[in-house]
Each structure stands twice: as structure tokens, then as C-alpha cells.
């Protein structure tokens, strides 16, 4: 499994792991004016534009993807040589698509009655546009499509990729989880009254909501691949409890965890770490903690990375699967930033400090609006 990532924590596995273990939130002011106060987890530094030959695709979403792409380019080239370009697919998971470009284009339309020069809704906004761009840049031509299920989007993309491999439709699939900070998202979560003015504090007694982040996470999965960590199983469920509130007892989330462990033939007692969805809202953390307590032993270490990265929305499933893989590869469990003092109603073993030692089995949870749940099992080979 080749991996590439960029987030507020930095670029690549090494820089990201150091930031995870350090456990200090990296936040920025929103990149646009707002009538309220919040912070965001922006990817740092300037983002290179999309190559001129593909300028119609040039959005922040595409630039984030291309920031992470060099980390997997060689692995994709090797897979292309081994399998053929038509045997390599792409599945993109995103919850916003190119909204960062559509927002100013719509304002331009409101003011002038026309689109900005060169703007292409199909190339800039469409959720599968990233796949089209990557096919052109990487010289691959297998199936390419997008999955958008809010905050489980890229976890579901991983599940879709595994199905393509199992059905022998593809021999390798590039999974892309990507979302960019945009005004619609920040204002939307503020309207839901779950946006914090400070970095999120998952599982903390003083938690008061999320902060929005952005990221791109890429995984190249191969049917006959190997590596220091692998995707062993994915459990999926949909409890459809409410449009924007989790099922209070976490029944659907627990079902996803249990399904994943059954598929992987792993006993709950074998789980070494859970990277929880852990958004920092009152309802999500309470429901997810009940789900984890229902499905796993009380002793299993649990943490959330969203206090560091922000909630990266559709990217978080893939991004945090890579965090789970890093825990296995390097034998370190990062602290759950902002969790102290822990909510006394949450009876989980929340990591307050980094912990070192062998990690063989790690879970990564992703939960979403509409009751969409996914749990990815990552194991050592």
C-alpha cells in the first residue's frame, strides 16, 4: 500500500507522524471574511497550480491532490508497468468537490450574468474531475468515479476500491480522499451550531464543536500488493437515524466495527488502537464512545486526530486510515489532542500521552450525516 498525504500537519508520512506525536494543534485564521470567529486547519504554504495544459481543473481541491501526488507517483508507475494502464482505477472520496472554485464563480455570475472566463463546471466543480485529471497526468485508463457520502466519503472510496480489486475489474486502484476549506462548509457547520471558535477537543469534558480542516490522502491498493501495513477489512452500515445527528447509542457505528472485525477474522481483544472519528461535538463523541464500548474491550487505546488537523470532511476516512497505518509501521500511538480533562461520561481509554510499542491491529472510524458509518481495519503484514 503506497501512501501520500498532506494536511495542516505537513506533507508526507515522516512530517505528519512527528506532528501527530507532538500533539499540538496547527490552526490558521479562515482564508475568507466571516461574521463569526473560528479557526481552520489549512495546508501550509503556497500550493502549486495545476499544469497549464489542464488549467480548467485548477482548483484548491486539485492543488491539494497534486501536493500529495508525488509521494505515490513511482508506485503508480510501477503498477502501470506491471498491470497495464487500463487495469488501474481511481476512486475519489470528497464531500465538497470544487466548491472553492464554484463559490467565486457563482458570485461572478450573480454580478455579471455569466461565468468567469475559462471556468468549467465539469472540470472545476464535478466530484469526479480529480479522477479525470489524475488519469491524464498518470497515464492510466481504468474505471474512475467519485463517492460522496459526507464525512465517510473516502472511507467508502477505500471500500469501493477493494470491491474493484476483488471483482478483478482492476489490479490496482488509487484511492483519493480530498476536501478543501471553503466558505460554504464553514458557514454550514456554524449554522448547525457545532463550529468551535478554537481547535476541536474530542472526548473532552469542555468540548464545544469542530473546526474545519483540509487534506489530501492517497492510497494505492493492489490485489497482489504488500507492504508494512495493509487494509484487512472494512465494515459499513447505514442507520439513517437523522439527517445530521448520530444514532444516540451508536448502534450503526458499533455494527460497522463488528462487521469489519468479522470480515478480517479478528477478535475484539486483538485490537491495539482505535483512531476514532472523534469530531469534538457533544453528540458525535457521546454516540461514538458508546459504539466503541459496545464493540471493543474497555482497555483498547482510543484517540482522535481532529484536534490537530481539523475535521477534513470527505478526506478524513482516507487520511485517518493512513494515520492508523503509521501507528502500525512506527509502533507509536499519538495522543488525542485536547482530550483533557476527559468527559467523565465517556468510559474509554483515551490516549493522553504518546505510547510506544508494537501495534498489529488498528481501526479507523468514519461517521457521517445521514447515519453513514465505516470502519477500516489496518493490520501489520
Secondary-structure blueprint of this entry?
Blueprint: E1 2-7, E2 10-11, H1 12-22, E3 40-41, H2 60-68, H3 70-83, E4 88-93, H4 99-112, H5 121-124, H6 129-138, E5 144-147, H7 153-166, E6 172-179, H8 183-191, E7 212-213, E8 215-222, E9 230-238, H9 251-264, E10 273-275, H10 282-295, E11 301-303, H11 306-309, H12 316-330, E12 332-333, E13 349-350, E14 355-356, E15 361-368, E16 372-379
Parallel strand pairs: 3-7, 4-5, 4-6, 10-11, 10-15, 11-13
Antiparallel strand pairs: 1-2, 1-8, 6-8, 9-16, 12-14, 15-16
How would you portray this structure in words?
The structure is a single chain. It contains 12 helices and 16 strands. It is an alpha/beta fold and 381 residues long. The protein has one domain (2-379): Thiolase/Chalcone synthase (Peroxisomal Thiolase, Chain A, domain 1, 3-Layer(aba) Sandwich). A 6-stranded mixed β-sheet has the order 2-1-8-6-4-5, with helices on both faces. A 6-stranded mixed β-sheet has the order 9-16-15-10-11-13. Strands 3-7 form a two-stranded parallel ribbon. α7 packs across α12 (316-330) and α9 crosses α10 (282-295). It is globular and about 55 Å long. 58% of the residues are buried. The model has no long low-confidence stretch (mean pLDDT 96).
Task: Summarize, please.
The protein has 381 residues and is α/β, with parallel strands linked by helices. The protein has a single domain, classed as Peroxisomal Thiolase, Chain A, domain 1.
Which structural class do the helices and strands define?
alpha/beta
CATH class: Alpha Beta
Helix content: 25-40%
Low-confidence stretches: none
Number of strands: 16
How many domains comprise the coordinates?
1
Fourth-level CATH superfamily: Thiolase/Chalcone synthase
What can be said about the biggest beta sheet?
A: 6 strands, mixed
**CATH 2nd-level architecture:** 3-Layer(aba) Sandwich
Order of SSEs, N→C? EEHEHHEHHHEHEHEEEHEHEHHEEEEE
Rounded radius of gyration (Å): 19 Å
CATH domain fold name: Peroxisomal Thiolase, Chain A, domain 1
Lateral arrangement of strands in the main beta sheet: 2-1-8-6-4-5
How much strand content do the residues show?
A: 15-25%
The 3D shape can be described as globular
**Annotation field: number of helices:** 12
Distance between the termini: 11 Å
Amino acid at each position: 500500500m503506497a501512501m501520500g498525504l498532506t494536511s495542516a500537519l505537513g506533507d508526507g508520512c515522516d512530517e505528519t507522524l512527528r506532528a501527530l506525536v507532538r500533539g499540538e494543534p496547527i490552526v490558521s485564521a479562515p482564508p475568507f471574511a466571516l461574521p463569526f470567529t473560528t479557526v481552520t486547519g489549512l495546508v501550509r504554504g503556497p500550493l502549486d497550480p495545476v499544469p497549464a495544459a489542464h488549467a480548467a481543473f485548477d482548483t484548491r481541491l486539485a492543488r491539494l491532490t497534486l501536493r500529495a501526488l508525488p509521494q505515490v507517483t513511482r508506485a503508480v508507475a510501477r503498477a502501470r508497468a506491471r498491470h497495464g494502464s487500463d487495469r488501474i482505477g481511481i476512486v475519489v472520496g470528497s464531500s465538497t468537490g470544487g466548491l472553492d472554485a464554484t463559490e467565486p464563480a457563482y458570485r461572478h455570475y450573480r454580478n455579471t450574468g455569466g461565468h468567469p472566463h475559462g471556468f468549467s463546471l465539469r472540470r472545476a466543480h464535478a466530484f469526479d474531475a480529480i479522477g479525470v485529471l489524475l488519469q491524464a497526468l498518470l497515464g492510466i485508463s481504468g474505471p474512475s468515479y467519485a463517492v460522496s457520502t459526507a464525512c465517510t466519503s473516502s472511507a467508502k472510496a477505500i471500500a469501493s476500491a477493494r470491491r474493484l480489486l476483488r471483482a478483478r475489474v482492476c489490479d490496482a486502484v488509487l484511492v483519493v480522499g480530498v476536501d478543501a476549506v471553503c466558505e460554504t462548509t464553514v458557514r454550514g457547520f456554524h449554522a448547525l451550531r457545532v463550529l468551535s471558535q478554537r481547535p476541536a477537543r474530542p472526548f473532552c469534558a469542555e468540548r464545544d464543536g469542530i473546526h474545519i480542516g483540509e487534506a489530501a490522502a492517497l492510497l494505492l491498493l493492489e490485489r497482489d500488493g504488500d507492504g508494512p501495513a495493509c487494509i484487512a477489512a472494512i465494515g459499513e452500515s447505514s442507520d439513517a437515524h437523522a439527517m445530521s445527528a448520530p444514532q444516540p447509542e451508536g448502534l450503526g457505528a458499533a455494527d460497522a466495527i463488528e462487521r469489519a472485525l468479522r470480515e478480517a477474522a479478528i477478535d475484539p481483544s486483538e485490537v491495539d488502537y482505535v483512531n476514532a472519528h472523534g469530531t469534538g461535538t457533544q453528540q458525535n463523541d457521546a454516540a461514538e464512545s458508546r459504539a466503541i464500548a459496545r464493540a471493543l474491550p474497555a482497555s483498547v487505546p482510543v484517540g482522535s486526530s481532529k484536534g490537530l488537523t481539523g475535521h477534513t470532511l470527505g478526506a478524513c476516512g482516507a487520511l485517518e486510515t493512513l494515520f492508523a497505518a503509521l501507528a502500525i509501521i512506527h509502533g507509536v500511538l499519538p495522543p488525542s489532542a485536547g482530550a483533557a480533562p476527559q468527559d467523565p461520561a465517556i468510559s474509554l481509554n483515551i490516549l493522553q500521552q504518546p505510547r510506544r510499542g508494537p501495534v498489529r491491529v488498528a481501526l479507523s472510524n468514519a461517521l457521517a450525516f445521514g447515519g453513514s458509518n465505516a470502519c477500516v481495519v489496518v493490520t501489520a503484514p
